[in-house]
Design goal:
Helices cover 42% and strands 12% of the residues. With 207 residues, the chain is of the alpha/beta class.
Length: 207
């Protein structure tokens, strides 16, 4: 074989090897690029889920109000908030007995219960029955210092209130903010008469 042919063969083989290596590099880059893109998408989806999850269960929407305790009156009270979260209320022993009610309770009595540390969950009377049942299960599961009753004219289908705190905009009994609100504000640090009774007062809750 002549030197020219030998050289040409070497050059052809070298070119083929170079092309093969270039192809392998392109394949590797494509694989790494695709893998990186998938990882970025997964990270983005997880981040999106966590942000949405936090937003859905955040208590940032809770409004705060300042009221002093121990203001008793036998007169009807016109409250600024609807439902009320504090202010003058029925004297002892006419706080509302904690528990589940299927009829509206006296605002002045319920405010007295919140002064003792109760969380008052109110709902519109036209709330679907299955939603009402879920609220009853939630309240009963949470134990003492819980009050549940219908309340006409409230700003959202369900409202959670405690002394000086209120969360509106609740449209579903499964809202994860409800148990978080209860955990944070039932017998919370702002309770004027922490530990006072939530039974032995007024009203007969459902069994």
């Amino acid at each position: 074989m002549s030197k020219e042919k030998t050289q040409a063969r070497r050059e052809t083989l070298a070119k083929m090897r170079a092309e093969q290596k270039a192809k392998e590099r392109r394949t590797a880059l494509l694989m790494w690029g695709s893998g990186g893109l998938i990882i970025l998408l997964l990270v983005g989806l997880v981040g999106f889920y966590l942000v949405n999850e936090r937003a859905a269960s955040s208590l940032d929407a809770v409004k705060s109000f300042t009221y002093v305790g121990s203001e008793h009156t036998t007169d009807p009270v016109t409250y600024k908030e609807n439902p009320p979260v504090g202010g003058p209320h029925a004297p002892s022993p006419d706080w509302q007995n904690c528990g589940v009610y299927d009829q509206p309770v006296g605002k002045e009595n319920a405010v007295h219960s919140m002064e003792h540390g109760a969380v008052w969950i109110t709902y519109r009377p036209d709330l679907p029955k299955d939603q009402i049942e879920k609220l009853r299960e939630l309240v009963r599961k949470q134990g003492d210092y819980m009050l549940l009753s219908p309340f006409p004219g409230i700003p959202s289908p369900i409202v959670a209130s405690s002394w000086g705190k209120q969360l509106t905009g609740i449209t579903d009994a499964d809202d994860p903010r409800l148990p978080k609100f209860i955990a944070k504000f039932k017998n919370g640090p702002g309770t004027p008469e922490l530990g006072a009774a939530c039974s032995g007062g007024k009203g007969e809750p459902l069994p």
